Amino acid sequence: MNFHEVLLLGFIQGLTEFLPVSSSAHLVIFQKILGFEEPPVFFDILVHCGTLLAIIIFFKKELRDILIKTVKAILSGKIKRIPSIVWFVIIGTVPAVIFGLVLNKFIEIIFNSLLIVGLGLMITSILLFFTSTIENDDKIKPLTNFKALLVGLFQALAILPGVSRSGSTVSVGVLIGLRRKEAFNFSFYLAIPAILGALILQTGNLANLEYDFLSGLTGLLTAFFCGLLSLKLFRIFFLKGRMFYFAAYCCFLSVASLSFYFFSL
């Protein structure tokens, strides 16, 4: 990989990982239509580390508070005092674990299909469109175990390329009555174990990886800074209910992907 490819991949990963446009869809499209080569596993690992770090830095105050309260509750033996958001994240993560294990054997097939990408992007577009029409902050309902599981199911669905993880989870959060800020925060709390899980799967065979630390570090830093930027932009657009722009973009990309797929048959 040359320097320009490293910067481009880091930029794409950092920007599309958090914006509701599906980073996996963009990767498949770049590979299929533009002939972009799949990045080395080691590079991919470090780029995902960059996006994970972006989430941690972006939510550092909230995560620090949750961590302190959780540690104090465990050390004091008072499990009931563990913040409820911790249990919600655990519950919401279960579907992604199950889906990941079931679909693991079909990953290469799934990530090699523009048809799946196109359909996934259309699902994302529809969810974002409906979300942009709802203003529910005056009719908020608390997050519950069932709602956490429901949001987690859509995060699991986002294993399919084209279905945006951030877009689907925040949309479902709003549709089930959560305040926009709560839906946004919970979506990215869920992203932490999801990204960690993906990293663990990728690092399962480190001994056979090719290491290029300079490219990896460049990709990590690019993904980190672009990730921070995209998180800030997404929060602004989402809290103001302006998801229509992303819905239109995903719809356009869906039509383009499906058209390319059917014309190439």
Structure description:
This protein has 265 residues and is mainly α. It has one domain. The protein is built from 12 helices and no strands. Helix 5 (84-103) runs parallel beside helix 8 (145-157) and helix 5 packs across helix 10. The longest helix is centred in the C-terminal third of the chain and has 27 residues, at 213-239.
Rounded to the nearest angstrom, the radius of gyration is: 18 Å
Secondary-structure element pattern, one letter each: HHHHHHHHHHHH
Classify the secondary structure makeup into a structural class: mainly alpha
Helical proportion, percent range: over 70%
Number of helices: 12
Give the terminus-to-terminus CA distance. 31 Å
- How many separate structural domains? 1
Shape: globular
Uncertain runs with pLDDT below 50, 5 residues or more? none
- What is the makeup of the main sheet? none
Q: In percent, how much strand structure appears in the residues?
A: under 5%
Task: From the structure above, extract its key features.
mainly alpha, about 75% helix, about 260 residues, globular
Reconstruct the topology from this structure:
Layout (H helix, E strand, L loop, with lengths): L2 H16 L4 H10 L8 H18 L1 H16 L8 H20 L3 H4 L3 H19 L12 H13 L7 H11 L4 H23 L10 H27 L4 H20 L2
In short:
With 265 residues, the chain is mainly alpha-helical.
